[in-house]
Protein 1
Amino acid sequence: MKRRSIETENRIAHVKRLLSCLAGGFVLALMVGTQEGTQQDFGYAFREAVLGPRILIFLGIGVALYGAITFGPRAVPYLTRPGLRPLVAGAVTVLVSFTLLRWTDSTSIETGKFRPLADAASATGGLDPVAKVFFGSWFSLMPWLLFVLVTVLAGVAMLRRSAGLGYAAGGIAFVLGLWAQYSQSAVSSYLGTPNHATGGAVAMLGFFTISVAALVSARSASEVANTEGFVDTVMTWRPGMPLVVLGGVIGVVGVFIATWFSPTDRNATLATTSQMFQGENLGAFSAAYLGWLGYLLFFVTLAAVATASYLRHRVLGYVSVALGVVSMLITLWVVHDFSGLAASQGFNGAKGAWDNLGSGSWMTSAALSLLAGAGYLVVKALAVESLGEMGDSDLIGTAHRLTNGQLGSATMLVVITAALFYPPTATQFWQTVLVAEIGIYVLLAVGLNVVVGWAGLLDLGFIAFYAIGSYTTAYFTGRLPVQPPDWLLLSPLAVIPFAVLICLIAGVALGFPTLRLRGDYLAIVTLGFGEIIRVIANNATGFTNGPRGAFNIPPPEIHLGPIHLTWGSSALGYWYLLLVLIIIIVILFNRLEHSRLGRAWAAVREDEVAAQATGINTTRVKLLAFAIGASTSGVAGVFFASQVGSFTPENFVLNNSILVVAYVVFGGMGSLPGAMAGAAVLTWLPNFLKDQVPPEDRQMWIGALILVMMIFRPAGLIPARRRKAELAGLDKRDSAETTAVPAGEGM
């Protein structure tokens, strides 16, 4: 039989690839849209999806994908041009603003998103003409056309290395960013209602990012983007300066623009709030803060930390930390004072302090915290430099340690600041999601990461320990048919040590019979353990109350001398309690990862036989992994039971165990930040998609995201260094940049 020629084989391969990409576009057409079938006509959704002009768009996406796969290797050298990554990030940001985010809170605009608002605004006679043009009064697709043109212009400037085109694209993008925000403000003024939608601000941020990307491309003399070098330059030029800039921008918005009080009625900024409380029996100090002291504290702190960073001044660094922390605490005290006064007068139905607040005070507090963090980074950088001068290390080694320390510490400070001050600005719905779903699953993912990520033991029954923690809480609070002695009736927080101890024992009980099992066999046994616990909870009516579960579990309480705290119905209080638990556990686990036990887990994960041959007691190590991971799940169970107040055995089904495993894998097995990020993203996404896609399509989109992640980033969102090295190798990427050499190693 005659064999095909190489050219024929290549043609057949191209045809198969094209057909596969067209099939992918066809499937995407079925996924995107609100079309649904009916009981009378199951094919209605199919016809609506593929038998109209819209199918051409999705087939075009398939053709574009074919072109990217086929000719992508030729484009790879151009993908490393300076500014290209921020250009993509800015374009995606604008795209999200135009398609997903709300541009107005007015109920007269359906969904409040960009498209319905643009249709209405472009046909409104009394609206500002400049805003009407942006929304498409001249041409209905005007904003999209401008967005595509500036993105293409910036891309061409980067590919052709044209400074003129880069400057032009940067200027146009900057103007478009201001135009987008101005147009949203004009609509808000015309409607005359408070507007806290973020669409315009996010679009402005996206266009500004495109502008910066274009200007970077125009100014750069290099053919290849040196991202690591850029980060080194930014972080080491002046220690803490990125946080100074970020805190300054957030603070200016918080002090001058954002709402401080009555966001749904008065929409009062800091200045307006001061006027509202004049003559209202507000304390003299709080009145002074609202009038002038708040501005003074912010700008003095900003000036002090900027000077400390620029001059690398240790004493000013300490002063900046003190100023930032004290100013932040004063801000919170004043907010409590005037919001409590408003609540006592029944203003806008406020029931207590911290009610009826806008985002301004929280943004100002966040800015002051970031400025204090910048002062800390100055002090830390000077300490590292002092150590480098006293030792034998060369300057390059010191700079490398300084960059890593600055970047990691700055990232951690931003995350903690966001965790402290973003939740009060969220809606009640998102506060509940943050506590009841995201926070609890982050705890579970951190615990399972010990078993799956660090020790390499696949556990599909992890949710059983979550159930044990919940039922332990119900027992010790007296909410099960079997009651504890009166002297053993406890508050939920006091139950935590008992839940940890019981889950430790349960973890050992699970681990001991499975010591000889690995891989799929271990997964099956742990799966069975999880189902056994659920079945027992469902059938042991005399102890667990059977299918009815436990209910009326009291909220957490703390009574220590003069301190009396009770968590009620507010999700925010639970969030801060959960945040404390997460921080404590993360600190302990971070120390544990780098301990002797953590290294033993890594050895067992890589090769248990080799680990045992080197003297590691694998039995003890594996049992400790099961026990420590289970204890974290027990803490999550205590919090869950006390927060929701009631639960049944159906809260602890197998599907939940599989979800937690997926979170750990998605975030990055063996990576503590990765496990937390994976749990946060995959619990946030279904709730975000509620307003974006039909309910039946949510799991499909989540599955598509996981599939894309596994293809293009198999190590996870934030992979562990070891895992990343296993997949990508230890060699550094080739670079056209000159590598610095220590003086002692030169020629």
Protein 2
Amino acid sequence: MIDLEPLDCLVLPVVALARGPEDALELQARQRIFDKVRERPGIHFSEIVRELDYAPTTVRYHLSVLEREGVLSSLEVGRYLRYYPREQGERFLRDVLSPEEKRALAMLRQRVPLAVAVELLVNGERTHGQLTTAVGVSPSTMTHHLKRMTQVGVVQQAREGREVHVSLVRPEQVRELLKKYEIKPDLADTAVDVFEDVGL
């Protein structure tokens, strides 16, 4: 069991709680998984497996323990179950992020939604066609991602004649999440330049 009060075990090496070599290795793995989620809120299971190079069964076991102990929470967004850290409140553990922030982060962890968000931060409201050109995807792909971003409350769409206009619902929230969690685009150099224009 993880000692939750105080929560020093979540910040200091949890190996100190080990009762033997095997226990130490297990707790070390759990600490690394927790640290990865704290470092990248909204990360999903496959990313944790890939980045930490643990067996899926190992990651699944430790995530279940961390969730059961209340130090992590999860949220299903689309096809993925994403994980988020919790912190000690005045009396109980609490979520670090609001449900809206969790859903927004889940979108910003993906290449196309991230590019759309950056484009909207830089240029404000854009049409569906302008976003398709700027991001470099097909119209159907853009429609798919905008639908998902609209469902979770990141963007809003309004039809004017034959054009669909898109804007961010909470641009300052998106800007703050990008900055706080240092989410960088895995895109072309021009996208990096755009990040500099946004001031991130």
